[in-house]
User: Fold these one by one.
Assistant:
Number 1:
Amino acid sequence: MKYQVTHVTDYIYQSPSSLCHNIMVQTPKNLPFQTVEQHEQVIDPEPEYLNRSQDFFENQTVHFSIERTHSKLTATSKSTVVLSAPAWMTADPGQTQPWEQVRDWLHTTKALNDTRQFYLQSKHVEFADGVQEYTLQSFTPGRPIMEAMLELNSRINSDFTFTPGFTDLSTPVSEVFANRKGVCQDYAHFSLACVRSIGLAARYVSGYLETIPPPGKPKMVGADASHAWISLYIPDLDDWVEFDATNNLLVSDQHIRVAVGRDFADVTPLKGIIYSAGKHTMEVSVDVRRS
Amino acid sequence: MIASYLNSIKNGTARYLDELATKDGQISEKWQHLAHYYDCAGPQKLKQSHDEVSRQLRENGVTYNIYGDPEGMNRPWQLDPIPMVFGSEDWEYIERGLQQRANLLNHILKDVYGGRTLIKEGLIPFELVYNHQGFLRQVDKLMLEGDLQLIQYSTDLARGPNGQMWVLHDRTDAPSGAGYTLENRAAMTRVFPELIRENEVRKITSYYQTLRNTLINLSSRSLENPRIVLLSPGPMNDTYFEHAYLSSIMGFTLSMGQDLTVSDGQVWLKTIKGLEKVDVIIRRVDDVYCDPLEFLGESHLGVVGLMEAIRQKNVLVINPLGVRMLENPGLMAFLPKICQKVFGEDLILNSVATWWCGQEREKNYVLDNLDYLIIRGIYSDQNAVFGGNLSSQEKDELIRKIKANPYLFVGQETVDFSTTPSWIDNQMVARNAVFRSYLVANSENHGYSVMPGGLSRSSPQQGVFMVSNQTGGISKDTWVLGKQVETPQPPPVKVSRQQAKVQQQILPSRTGEHLFWLGRYMERSAYTIRLMRMTLMAYNEADTDIHVTEDKVLSTLLKSLSHLTGTLPGFTKKQVLRKPESELLSLTTDVTRMGSLANSIQSFLSNGYAVRDRLGLDTWRILDSVSEELNGMKRPGITLTEVYHALDQMVIKMMAFYGLNIDNMTRESSWHLLNMGRFIESSANTCTALKALITKKFGLATDKELWETTLRCNESLVTYRYHYRSNLELTGVLTLLLSTEANPRSLLYQIKKIDDHFKQMAIQEFGETKELSPIRKKLLEAYTKTKLSDIETLCVLNEKSQSYTQLITFLDEIVALIQDTSTIVSEDFFNHTSSRYSMIQTNLLPEI
């Protein structure tokens, strides 16, 4: 499946700025089941400084600054990405190893640091009271890890109500859990809190969903904007297997992966500091089409 | 004295070792000579020495700030006249131990931000590093050139019951105190020169040379003239004194985050000349405050984009960001094993016994022994608590926290550290002491140099173990006795000459702005004081039978005060004028009131403190004494008579401040800006005061009195008498105060001075130009207007209004020109100091 993604961010300033510094994380990853055929970024006005690098989590980042007076900034990322079904789609969830085995292995030095870091709490993922108990209802003793995770994913999807505007970036997991409301970031952060609270390693994944559904299929939640879901490490499959609680899905070839991190803070699509006295607003639009 | 000291130890504090006494109550060898000295000197002499030490420090303006205490700014620094003493053998072992520890921590640092094999091999638990907020993922794999990554390193040490030195804390992020240490030594050297010589106390200056050397070497591999700035959080920081002090003695440019900017991936210093590239930043700002874009978004102490400049190796930051992970007290538990594994040696200096709760057994031990342990978070030692001091409720809460996140906590043994003779309340008593050592990477021999000395602190109370200045500890100089066996002196800094050349002309815009306003507020305060004194004198002499409103001289003076201080309506309102006392008190002593004298003096002080590195060291003490005087004036219930006397003192101190600067400041841009501020203020004040005092005609007697007052206010009465030897005439007064260029109080002289200083600064910063700049055009206009003014015409009375309207118009025009000049100066030289910024980022999107 081939997709065209256009991600446009506009900053609009109340009073002009003569300097701003930004970090952009909007470059899709190359993975065995995801090939980035084309990728370009257009920033207007053209930055005086632009540099690409790789962050700690091996995401592509772009640092750029605009060093002359401007009142509006538009950053456009365009990508052509080809997706295929990941290997985990053919795995039998009931045949995966017991989840405790994974937990115990993660807590030894046999597991890589790069893997282990994803079972710790992070800025937006705290172990709120009751989360572990909630998780253990699906992760019963000895249960195969993937099977348990699919059930948890489905429970979150049915227990929580997708409610735009109820939460913002500062809403902690505990509040999301208490109200069972939120948007895709909240679903992802809560899913992470669940599995990490029982000692499993899971990452926050940011990316996109296709905007126009195939004929006969319903439009999915999270289209027309950047989306978020999680990936859980399953040693048996030697992979980070992706689950989308917002859509109750095992992620396959409709999700375009951009970046991974401990939580949203590691993969913020665009953030900047603007030298200007006035306020500013940001507008984002995402368009994903099959081609 | 010593005998009673030994006695007191025997009776009271026997559970601690003592630095002076041996186990069997004799004087230890290292203390022999000193003990003899103190015995001969006696308490009286020692008290004198203590006073002398305090005086030295006060005169050098050595201060520190206490957080969260409004009275805590610029507290005098306390120094015990009795030093902490180390013998040479003792020291040799400490020195070796410190060097080993520095190398070990350096190794860990390189590994944690490199291959992380220590974690893979299980020598450092994974959680200990990855959960620590000092482990900055942004600096992963970024290394300085060469082996040494940890450049500055400090430890807090204390002697435990077994006679060994124990490490209480490792300080790696931005260790402070080296400046205070140098000041302590300077004061002690002045007061006890023979004692220091006879005891062969080792010199500590090589530490500072090595630091400078290393910084220059680290940066000069590709550069001929590296520019080094010291990044300070600013005057509110507890050790700001030291930032300014170290900057001035080491030749660094003192700067705050707002002085620096990043563009093109480079760091630039905003100077009055424009942007100047920065090569090395020696930072006193904590790691995560250094760049709001990549770390704490709310920080306003850092430099936006600094991390990217570091990433591109366009700037060196010392200590490097990320080093704070070494301050993790949990690491202490694992150092002995790592030392064995890495160096094949035993760790020489033990850390205070530490149990990291991330391990089951250790966690249980800590929970079982909570009452006897100090509990710390692994990230910050601010919240350390002694378990035994907690209420049962607090204890339950702590236990809950530990159980929820065990790897975030350590338990540490409380060490009964040794006591040392301390001079407290005029007595020699035994107090527990902590010693802070200073190490610096030595780029010449690729090892670490240890300062033979350091900053010791003793607790003012007995048996207090958490000693810091914030909690009232008293500092001590630290003496390492006996000649060093071999003295590998660091070679003199090779590029020092170039360094001096580079530093000479850099003036950050913010500093320039502070200097300009320092000049303005200095002059404004002095002028206000003079007018205030004349007014108070008139008020005190006024006939009590006559109403203030009918006393034309007094009421004109009072009104002129409201005009000059910009606090209208003030005395122009009848009811205020009728009972002037409370308004007079408010105008002098209310710091919170814009325009009041106290407010101007406060502004003078804060501008002064902000640029203290630019002012001669001697000048600092005048700032402190002005500050003291101001505190006296602010005291509630002060009377006008007391205010009058205080004003006398104040004006002398202000003049002394200016006088010292005339002698001390080099004639470069900072000097010129200070003077531009001063003369802009004085010329504007002269016009405002003339307009308020003598543009109205009352009657000859009253007028003459006001003319005399005006001359006095402008310190020109004597000159007048000398020049005219006649009765007072308005034409004479105006000629002297407006157009007699030889009179330094005349308007013409002052305008000329603004122009002179501006011209010289412009030449220095930008070179000669043919074109007349907008500032000089304004000044030329003001100068010409004054020069060409016809005094006779200005003195023509408007019969209808009984005032000199042409004089009023003239004065208004000059004030407008002066104000324009001031505005252009601000726009041209300080405008790039604007540094307001805010964060914007992709937020949760409502539609998903």
Number 2:
Amino acid sequence: MSAISSEHDDHAHDHKPSGIKRWLFTTNHKDIGSMYLIFALLMFFLGGAMAMVIRLELFQPGMQFVEPQFFNQMTTVHGLIMVFGAVMPAFTGLANWMIPIMIGAPDMALPRMNNWSFWILPFAFLILILSLFMPGGGPSFGWTFYAPLSTTYSNDSTALFVFAIHIMGISSIMGAINVIVTIWNMRAPGMTWMKMPLFVWTWFITAFLLIMVMPVLATVVTMVLTDKYFGTSFFDAAGGGDPVLFQHIFWFFGHPEVYIMILPAFGIVSAIIPTFARKRLFGYASMVYATASIAILSFLVWAHHMFTTGMPVFATLFFMYATMLIAVPTGVKVFNWVATMWRGAMTFEVPMMFALAFIVLFTIGGFSGLMLAITPADFQYHDTYFVVAHFHYVLVTGAVFSIIAAAYYWLPKWTGYMYDERLGQMHFWCSLISVNLLFFPMHFVGLAGMPRRIPDYALQFADFNAFISVGGFLFGLSQLIFVWVVVKCARGGEKATAQVWEGAEGLEWEIPSPAPYHTFETPPVIK
Amino acid sequence: MTNARCLLWSLPTLLFTASVNASSSMPLNMTKGVTEISQQVYQLHMTIFWICCAIGAVVFGIMFWSIIRHRKARGVQPASFHESTKIEILWTAIPVVILIVMAIPATNTLIAMDDTTDADVTVLVTGSQWKWHYKYLDHEVEYFSLLATPREQISNKLAKGENYLLEVDRPLVIPTGKKVRFLMTSDDVIHSWWVPAFAIKKDANPGFINEAWTRVDEPGLYRGQCAELCGKDHGFMPIVVIAKTPEDYQAWVTQEETRIATAKAAERELLAMNMSMEELMSTGERVYQGWCVACHQIAGTGLPGIFPPLKGSQLILTDRAAHIDILVNGKPGTAMQAFGQQLSLKELAAVITYTRNAFDNNTGDTVQAADVFAVQQGKGE
């Protein structure tokens, strides 16, 4: 068999188990990446369906469709699914697919662990979702599960909730270790640190955040478990504990967590803008330093979620200043993107449209974040719809829009076919309009004084809530167009070239489309 | 693309008209409030808002200029510049300066808000699922404040009133022109006491005491709500504060002290009396609907897995003493509160009798005030 060409040799490697076995036992980063992405999309729709229940109940004042207890379960599980089931796995999926290709590696460094980190996820979410069917329903204490609401005052679904969070945490930690080891050890010769694409850089930093804070989350859920079942009193003053201690530990995880959900988005946008502006990214080095600064600052600002808990005034001042400081590196990023566009030669395909919408709408979310940092004003904003508007601007029009942009950007590389540009544009415009109808009025509702996490509200909020609900339903429906585009693109269409986009640069655009099952078995040469 | 562009431009207009027309009664901005502090907070809010608008106008302005001018369709060639240390330093330094300018007034306001010394009146505010308790530390006055909106309005069986979900049976009353200090705590989970007009939002943490203060200059009625998720009826524990002139306030305090003293005297008289089953049942039903239905539900069925049913409860049917005890002393480690502190002897006797005989429990016996009193004194049956 020594006579066969190396090309045939490549094909010989393509043999893989067929059917379900291929997916269960795969150690291929592309297969695992695809599974992560499909799983995230499913969870996005499941979490979205819960959001629809929430918006349906809030369509009119009074209780119409669900009971307050079930409403609380919906807000809780919607949050958990969107954070841990949709956004984080989607980013991990993108990391799996793109990082090895972008650095010229044949696969992830730890492929079997990679298989595990994906395959435990569906079970975690199965447990979480099944807990909704327990007597008394599932977790109903908000995704932040503040004690003692989640300890003394919760039902037994809490045990399942804790177990599910543990599995999700293990999955994330394994994924993060894999990313770090891959990037550290498997870069092709010549791929120096400061030549890595920004998506790789942002994920590298994100992975460090993950391995630092996911154990903190595991700790705090375990403390909840032992307080509830084993007689400890970490969060119970009667036994010498403190309920506010819970919040300090939770947000020490929680704040870096929100950057875990946005740093990879920065990487994606930093890849897309230069491609469609046909001009190199402005200030590459400052982008790397800004990302690292944001990551370090993220450990010093957690208590800005807790300004009303009654911290000493000097602690409050420290956290206010540190939080305001985050605006500086974040601002640098936005300015760099705008400078990249400046005097470029732009075209506006769907990935670019989502990336541009990301810059504008994420920045709006950043502005409301800056407002929230001003502590005396935060006393009025805290726990109102103003906060709901803020974090949905950064997470939906921020993180989710960046994921959608990434999907459009790399779909031709994944499937080998161009997506339907017309349908994609339709998806973009429907999403852009409805998402703003949905979240923009929430700023006003919050400023007028509507608390978050309430199933019923005073009459003055009625018209706005009806309006918001309609926006919500439209945004939900708009995402069906996305499924249509993806399915259509996977089934066929115009053949994609290797480079796909005229202005695209990087290793992923030098391999054929669709990307072969195995890439870079011999390392590429980076000039 | 022309259609799409039309849509883009019409979006802000659409949103704007919607925000103006959608509600004539809902304010579109944060309240200025009625205290010096709340005005300062409003000023901070508006300052940072306009700063954000200005930065947004510049950044988005440049971005959209670039989108319009530097598009490939116009035949432009991309430039090749991609870094400039000077400009990077500039756009790092300018935001730092803006932030320092913003931080100074914010710090001053925050320190002023923190100073709870030299208060004229002190009120202990205690949250519990799902009501507020106010105790005036300088007077013999304390009472619970519950949602006054009828359940039928919430379940859409009756038309909703003007102050739907924002009305209580007994509002908090404070004097104008005096520094009022609030001490916040909780009996169960974390609640948060929020009155926007005073710019006070402070968590009520179980086992700890937080402080806040206000000085209201004009008499008036101010509404607020619990702001921290505290379980099922988090959306149904409003706050109403009435500010009265010092004279009216003093008169109110005297009146309340008399009312509470009279009620206590009546309690003692009650010990010697036997109330009829009818009287106990009708009072009991009223108390049940005010204090118990949130958890145990209107038909006594509870919520499986969270709140146990009263209908057919073995404790009720077989152990009368334990039934009285759980009402008076609560059940530690659960949501069942010690109602001995919250309800009068008559109300306790009535609601225990009611739950012993409603929901097909039909034990046929009554519980009298003296029975409850005995348990309260630690001398149960």
